[in-house]
Design goal:
Blueprint: H1 2-20, E1 41-44, E2 60-68, E3 101-106, H2 126-133, E4 134-137, E5 162-171, E6 176-180, E7 187-188, H3 207-255
Antiparallel strand pairs: 1-4, 2-3, 2-5, 5-6, 5-7
Protein name: Uroplakin-3a
Keywords: Membrane, Signal, Transmembrane, Transmembrane helix
GO biological process, one term: water transport
Amino acid sequence: MCSHWVLLAFCCLGQLCADQSLKPQIAAPQLASNNPTLTTVALEKPFCMFDSSLHPNKSYIIYLYTMKESASAISSLVTDNSSKPLDSTFQQTSGGQLGPYKAALFNVPNCASPPKLADVGDVNKVSDVLKQYLFRVGDDGTCLYDPNFLAVCNPPLAPDTTYRFKYVLLDSTEGIMKDQTLWSDPIKTRKVKLPLKIDTWPGRRSGDMIVITSILSVLVFLLLAGFLASVSSAVMGSEGSSAETRSVSQTTQQSEPRPQLSSE
């Protein structure tokens, strides 16, 4: 009996550790190409992360917090002493430099019926599937400058900057945090490439680009050659016609009888 309880305790401890190790993940490249971008990061929504913390007849919501990697560990807390989540904004934290800010809120993803990833190949369903499965941080370029915007602002991230992200489960009725993930691994936005550093050497282009460029070059050459040939033919034809006209005129003049002088 004792061994049974020990085993049960280890199982519970293992489950607790597994829950504590959960953290936001960057979206798979199959679902979000070119991720991260200069100013956005696409994350997977927390499917099935908080199932053990959900209770019937309760209403929950997910908060997403963002902070720069350079922010201090002391300022990484997302709740106050009463377990209420912070409402820090992008402006108040200098874009996450001084601590985490609330970047988004959305409903708890339905673990029982997640989106079918096979539908990503269907052009009529792909947009809805990605919207259910992913969230793009930094996707709102206007909220900072709209004085009438009252929702959670999700402004663009800074290029070439490392960020961390955290999901928080909030009890909507009590207004307190019920669970949270760890901070994500560092995720860095892309760096702006200077025009002089953009690689335009043909040898480093893809094979398809080289073939397309070659075909276009040949077509342009053929069109130019055809145009020059047509112009040359037209000029030569015009010169031949003029010469023929002059020859006919001279022949006509020579064949006309000259007037005879009368002898007195």
